[in-house]
Amino acid sequence: MTVRGGGEFGLVWRSAPEAARRALALAHEALTAGGLAVGAVLTDPAGAVLAEGRNEAYEAGPGTGPLRGTPLAHAEMNALGAARTEWSLAATTLWSTHEPCAMCAAAAEFTGVGEVRYLAPDPWALAGGAAGASGAVLSGAGDGVWLIAANVMFLRSVRVAAPGPAEPEILVRHRALEPETAALHDAVPPGLPGAGPVRDWLAGLWPELARAARARAARVG
Q: Which of 20, 25, 37, 93 could in theory staple to 115 by disulfide, Cβ–Cβ 3.0 to 4.6 A?
């Protein structure tokens, strides 16, 4: 994995599966909207995106999906909700930036999705010792870069939404469990990023993001 300069970032970004890039873009949209930064897409066997969704559970007002503002409006549920009943989902893959919760994993099984893949462990599941419990497949796309990128966005969305100055417990726990991700989160300018392509936002973090991925790889082996 090359790590210096925007050219190298562009190479790594273009080499990521389309599904991973789109899921990260949807998570970034949720982050900039003040929601929980999770994105998901449903792809055909060739990897083309058939349906997509982002977490809208914590957003009010008009939005992109009928579940918006409800506890059901997880990214995976919104992606599955954009599929059509007449579709056979047996040959599809549901990609998410984060390991699906029990509700979303059950929905994927019920609707007959062929495979579920994710870029990063759900920080809450990780903190509770339940990472991997969904049976979905952790994607190795990006040699850990996209894992860290997804969780930096997730942690930032939780931090911004937290009431008062106290640090959210999930961020405290992440400092012990995923120190490289927590350190990069702290290095990102405070508050929410401005609207714009996720590619540009990640390119601005590239040297630190690549170093964090290398450090994590050395730690976990």
A: 93
